[in-house]
What does this fold into?
Amino acid sequence: MFYGAVVWDPWLIVAQIVCLQCLYYLTLGVFLSFLVGIRVSRMSLVYFFDFASVTTSNVTGWYVIASFLLSSVAGAGYMLYLIERAKKCLDFSATLYIIHLFICIIYGGWPSSITWWVVNGTGVAVMALLGEYLCIRRELREIPITRYRSNV
It folds into this structure.
């Protein structure tokens, strides 16, 4: 937790990105299972990566939106333990959503829905700002110093 001379470690950065991405999708899957899984007959990757499923025109779309936003809140909590630095939270959350954008493009084409862009933009903002807030609170905690009395 002490930050002196920072050594640039690309393997650590890649491992943090991979762990954060996996935890984000795992959490998104749990939220989608609970919120969307009760409304549809069969879950699929469409709800993860297809921009057409992020819609405000039906209740299932609202549950998908809620799942994405709740996952970004959980992602901020993951950054508290994986990243530990407030100044890196924006970088890691933006990287997560850029990778998500590339996966969505490969899966279903360029997202042409305004709703998709608003939800993901809000997700980046929530994850970055809440992650920074949580990390700053941890960084500003007092360092406990115990004083030992000598029994002389």
Q: What stands out?
A: The CA atoms of residues 134 and 140 lie 10 Å apart. The first helix runs from residue 10 to 35. The mean pLDDT is 92.
